């Protein structure tokens, strides 16, 4: 097959192998399309023709523009699916509180960027303590924690606290300076209701030798963590994060629909999934609204979308300021086209909850999370919300990883072959069983993601820095 028509309503098809001057993954017209006419893909409008387009002609940025400047009206028309219950287990680390971990790790988290070097040195010198079943000791550095005001100051505290609560962290050392806005005492108070006994804290200004002090804590953590063993755990304790980056014309045809099948299967097993990248829902938000389990969730989801659009407008940017140059090179023309492919990762299951930035997953099923589309910021937010693993689909490729295992899923054969050091799975095969088994092996510690030695976090900053 050299081309594909996704929906019988479509006015464009996608060439899979290239068609004359039209690159693989790009669109061509199935009929004559007059100027101003809606162009249809996935059975939905992806923009309007800016000129007359002949049947068979390449459809891209030179003759198609977004229609997201048109004011939408939202309705609630429930259309989610129910899937038969399934039973699956994985081998994980059971926790006293919360979901099981898929890794036995020790985190070092700075309250403020001023102590990043302290945390990096601690992590480096603590590697000698890694033994037994410990998967690693990692410093999760960032540049914030001071000079942020208002909501940003609240958000950094909430985000870092949520990172500390991720199930993959057997122990956590939170390191403060002692004079920052994101005060260590405030984080201690914030975390107190979660009843965790696996977190230690200290301010560098309060001890004579911060390095020796921190190493003693990490040595004790490692001694207590080294003998942990995996146990059989029900899939209801698994939460997967859904993210795409460097999308191309194949993303909505291969990787994202395949991950959507995994989402539905995970939910059928009693597990949870979280979808984020709010700006990359623009143009496809009505499809997700129709999957909200009830009107209360629909209203919360709608508010998240409207508020995010208003944030763009208030800052002087159009809501369609996307896709990226790489997206366009790969065959994506408009944000709504990108979004219609992006949201397929959520599958057909109900959206059961809407989470604010830094909030932890509460419900079984698919939750929508308020965070931007930036790869590292969004993936960090997914891990902070309780995802033990992120399924990251990509058509262009990227070597990054957030602080939880980040499974890279390629949309096409060429990327998978050319970047085998980055890519964990090639979705062009549409092998659902293969991907599900790889996720299960990753959760059980039998497979390590290609990028797993990289651990990074990033903060979503929206306000003033002093």
Architecture overview:
This protein has 466 residues and is an alpha/beta fold. It folds into 3 domains: 3-65, Roll (Archaeosine Trna-guanine Transglycosylase, Chain: A, domain 4); 105-227, Rossmann fold; 235-443. Helix content is 28%, strand content 19%. It is built from 12 helices and 20 strands. It has helices spanning 116-125, 150-164, 184-191, 210-225, 255-268, 285-289, 295-314, 325-329, 335-342, 375-384, 413-418, 432-443, and strands spanning 3-4, 12-15, 27-29, 38-41, 44-49, 58-59, 64-65, 89-92, 105-110, 136-139, 169-176, 199-203, 231-234, 239-244, 272-275, 351-355, 365-369, 389-394, 406-410, 425-426. A hairpin with a 7-residue loop joins β1 (3-4) and β2 (12-15). α2 crosses α3 (184-191) and α2 crosses α10 (375-384). It is globular. The chain starts with a strand and ends in a 23-residue tail after the last helix. The relative contact order is 0.15.
């Amino acid at each position: 097959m050299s081309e594909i028509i996704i929906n019988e309503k479509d006015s464009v098809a996608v060439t899979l192998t290239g068609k004359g001057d039209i690159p693989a993954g790009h669109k061509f017209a199935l009929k004559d399309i007059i100027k101003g006419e809606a162009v249809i893909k996935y059975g939905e409008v992806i923009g309007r023709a800016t000129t007359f387009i002949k049947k068979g002609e390449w459809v891209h940025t030179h003759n198609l523009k977004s229609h997201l400047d048109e004011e939408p009206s939202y309705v609630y028309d429930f259309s989610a699916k129910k899937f038969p219950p399934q039973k699956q287990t994985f081998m994980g680390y059971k926790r006293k509180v919360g979901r099981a971990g898929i890794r036995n790790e020790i985190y070092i988290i700075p309250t403020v960027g001023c102590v990043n070097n302290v945390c990096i040195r601690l992590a480096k010198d603590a590697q000698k303590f890694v033994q037994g079943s410990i998967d690693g000791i990692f410093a999760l550095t960032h540049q914030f924690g001071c000079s942020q005001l208002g909501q940003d100051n609240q958000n950094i505290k909430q985000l870092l606290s949520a990172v500390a609560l991720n199930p993959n962290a057997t122990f956590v050392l939170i390191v403060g300076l002692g004079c920052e806005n994101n005060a260590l005492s405030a984080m201690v108070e914030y975390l107190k209701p979660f009843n965790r006994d696996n977190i230690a804290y200290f301010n560098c200004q309060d001890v004579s030798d911060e390095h020796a002090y921190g190493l003693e804590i990490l040595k004790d953590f490692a001694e207590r963590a080294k003998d942990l063993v995996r146990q059989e755990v029900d899939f209801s304790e698994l939460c997967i994060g859904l993210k795409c980056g460097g999308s191309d014309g194949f993303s909505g045809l291969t990787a994202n629909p395949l991950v959507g099948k995994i989402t539905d299967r995970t939910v059928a097993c009693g597990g949870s999934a979280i979808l984020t990248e709010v700006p990359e829902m623009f143009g496809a938000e009505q499809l997700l609204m129709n999957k909200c389990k009830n009107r209360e969730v629909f209203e919360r989801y709608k508010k998240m979308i409207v508020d995010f659009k208003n944030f763009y407008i208030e800052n002087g940017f159009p809501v369609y300021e996307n896709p990226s140059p790489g997206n366009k090179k790969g065959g994506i023309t408009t944000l709504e086209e990108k979004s219609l492919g992006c949201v397929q990762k959520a599958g057909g299951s109900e959206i059961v909850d809407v989470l604010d930035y830094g909030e932890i997953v509460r419900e079984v099923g698919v939750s929508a999370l308020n965070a931007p589309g930036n790869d590292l910021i969004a993936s960090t937010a997914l891990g902070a919300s309780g995802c033990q693993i992120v399924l990251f689909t990509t058509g262009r490729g990227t070597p990054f990883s957030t602080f939880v295992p980040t499974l890279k899923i390629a949309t096409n054969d060429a990327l998978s072959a050319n970047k085998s050091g980055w890519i964990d799975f090639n979705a062009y095969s549409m092998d659902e069983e293969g991907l599900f088994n790889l996720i299960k092996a990753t959760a059980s510690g039998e497979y390590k993601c290609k990028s797993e030695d990289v651990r990074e976090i990033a903060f979503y900053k929206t306000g003033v820095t002093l």
